[in-house]
């Protein structure tokens, strides 16, 4: 597997080679990357991931048993 297809798998992106680099389509954007370097492409993808601010101070604490149960459910679903 080449490095570009690994990036496609990791980030759910679709990469199309152009004359100057790549057009990367991801869930949240279409990026034009004027480089063929895998490091540059990954940096561009990661830097454009939307950041969501979460105010943890105002959220009520989740009991550990509930957290652990949800975690186990999510892990079962992914397997």
Structure commentary:
The protein is an alpha+beta fold and 79 residues long. Helix content is 43%, strand content 18%. It is built from three helices and three strands. The protein has helices spanning 3-11, 38-47, 64-78, and strands spanning 14-17, 22-26, 29-33. A three-stranded antiparallel β-sheet has the order 1-2-3, covered by helices on one side. It starts with a helix and ends with a helix.
Structure summary:
The chain has 79 residues and is of the alpha+beta class.
Write the SSE topology.
Blueprint: H1 3-11, E1 14-17, E2 22-26, E3 29-33, H2 38-47, H3 64-78
Helical percent range?
40-55%
The total count of strands amounts to: 3
Give the low-pLDDT segments: none
Strand order, largest beta sheet: 1-2-3
Which structural class is indicated by helix and strand composition?
Answer: alpha+beta
Radius of gyration: 18 Å
Series of H and E elements: HEEEHH
Q: What gross morphology would you assign?
A: elongated
The fraction of residues in strands falls at 15-25%
Largest sheet: 3 strands, antiparallel
Treating each run of at least 4 consecutive H or I residues as one helix, how many helices? 3
**Termini distance?**
22 Å
Mean pLDDT: 83
The protein's oligomeric status is single chain
């Amino acid at each position: 597997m080449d490095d570009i297809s690994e990036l496609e798998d990791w980030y759910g992106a679709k990469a199309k080679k152009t004359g100057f680099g790549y057009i990367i389509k991801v869930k949240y954007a279409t990026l034009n990357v004027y480089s063929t370097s895998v490091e540059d492409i990954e940096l561009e993808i990661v830097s454009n991931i939307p950041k969501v601010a979460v105010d943890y101070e105002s959220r009520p604490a989740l009991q550990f048993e509930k957290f652990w149960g949800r975690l186990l459910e999510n892990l079962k679903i992914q397997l």
